[in-house]
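# step 3/5: fold
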Amino acid sequence: MLKHNLGYPRIGRQRQLKKVSEQYWAGKITSEKLFRTATELRQKHWEIQQRAGLDLIPCNDFSFYDQVLDMSFLFGVIPERYAPMSALRGLDIDLYFAMARGCQKEGLDLTAMEMTKWFDTNYHYIVPEFTLDQSFSIASTKIFDEFDQAKKTLIKIPKPVLIGPVSYLLLGKEKESGFHRIDLIHKLTPVYIELLKRLKNQGAEWVQFDEPFLVLDLTEKEREAFRYTYQEISKGSQGMRFLLATYFGGLDENITLAANLPVKALHLDLVRAPYQLDAVLKNIPEGRMLSLGVIDGRNIWKNNYAQSIEQIRMAKDVLGEDRLMIAPSCSLLHIPFDLDLETSIHPEIKDHMAFAHQKLREIDELDQIINGNVRLLELNRQSRERTARSTLIHDQVVKQRVANATGQDVRRYSPFATRKKIQQEYFQLPLFPTTTIGSFPQTPEIRQYRARLKNGEWTQQQYNEAIEQATKDTIHRQEEIGLDVLVHGEFERNDMVEYFGEQLKGFLSTQNGWVQSYGSRCVKPPVIYGDVSRPRDMTVRWSRFAQAQTKKLMKGMLTGPVTILQWSFVRNDQPHIITAQQIAWAIRDEVQALERAGIRIIQIDEPAIREGLPLKRKDWDDYLGWAIKAFRIASSGVGDHTQIHTHMCYSEFNDILDHIARMDADVITIETSRSQMKLLEAFAKFRYPNEIGPGVYDIHSPRVPTVEEMFHLLERAMTHLPAKNIWVNPDCGLKTRKWPETTEALKNMVKAAKRAREKWD
């Protein structure tokens, strides 16, 4: 069997790519230093995979920001607004970063491209923008340069990785009416063929096409695009071998389509959809190879060797060993780098874990077991038995609380219309009230405070005093800016999920379990290994302190149960619905504690509700049923005078608005600036009943939007929603921004809100 990998974490063992990218953006290093670090990282990662015994090692899976943006850059899909950038500067990398982050310097003011979630992961990609007269050409040498570098590093010929042409088009958006982006397939396919010819001339033998849309519901037009494209590519292949990679779900109704595309090998995600193997084996043509994705590329638990061996043997009995490949289910981009960097995880739990480095070893060990190494199989069985017996995992009190839930536990006392009147009288807020989403800049000083506490240089008291001062300063800033509802800034928090994971029972935090979320933004997801409960208050101390510093309303800030679940590595020994409800009860306890402490506005962030949707529409109702129930468990234990906010960002909500309405949050804040308020059309058509804060500026870009710009967005919002229901806020939290740009942007935002009040009050 051929052993291969679909992609490797690109950020580096110590997040070197993050650090060097941010240094370059800050003007502290040259592009030569940036490129040199990238070259070193790629070489190290290839060498790691080579030592793991892989037969096919991916290249072009590295990216400075995002693999979809790389494809747009490769094919010259660069929106017209960036033309001044090209004329002003000679470095392609600056244009590339401007597309991802925007640019506001040297007389330029360029907005970033839209960003959204990569299928049902917490990774964000940059959305391609297509026009009716869109042209494609090979406009970048990155893929060819990295192939040459890999050839010099590896003993075997590397395998270039590309997003397949159909998925690339479907990942994008039409920027004008009159066509569907899939219509561009006839223009795009010849450029792919040209690219493949160049790779062939360089010595490429295998090419991996990622086509994850094959696990989604497809129209007949999209199916025909797959047939046309791969027939054309096959004609111009010149003997190259193509691996068609599908992941994040099962092929289901697309099995016949995928199995009969003229490629050498088809990759299946047998972690997310183990059931599909039997049907694929019945449909796969003679001579086609099958890549079995048996190692979980999305979670950090050790592989169940017995289960994987059963799948491999099932396929081997039908196809024979020479037509099989084994691999992770998807790219290892979504999991941390190396478990060996962790020194503080309880041995009973660590024994059941595997990061990217360890999962490469699992591929090799499965191959050894197939070839007769029964000792490895037995060691794996013993490890799984030890985990199942662990007393760290199960808590009967928690299990019983979930089982005893009643209908009243998921309902507010009064309907929204009643609550709204009570809250209006209590809060006395103006039209277009202004607020932020929660976090404020985590400066180097703030991070240094945390490091000093962690390293023992500071006592807890010294740390608390420093955080208190930062909180006071931020409250005073907000008062000076003129915001109506304040937040405490979240300086005591490392991450919106990790912070809660550190305090909830049943969770553990890693030291170096970093995963890329977008660009240089890395998160360290907590690990849910057991039953979840809340031993003590988590946020009350800081919210109470913050409220005591001001006469204005102070929001309590929490992360919701579904987002904590989605952005953690979740235990795989019970259904997600049970784990979600356990987390929900823990958050409910915190919400009620905040209310008792006098906090009357409480935000429960749920940016991952939409992201967690199953990829098949037929599975949506089941998921949304338990996800909305979890949110309502968390939010329904307060009085009518307490206002519940929730925040969602960078997702399409059009098709789930009825479920969002069932969350019954008093106020929902969403991302709308990059999409120019287009999302609100759906809220208007649906007649969304509660209050809404459409984000008026993009916090993922360092540029400062003008008053006019934000006022214009509010005007657009007014065409869709009644003024009395609109809040004014940024798209997301401000943690990743710097203070000067944050302060100026918020001042402009408040001015825009005041202009709106003057016009509509």
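# step 4/5: annotate
The mean pLDDT is 94.
# step 5/5: archive (pending)
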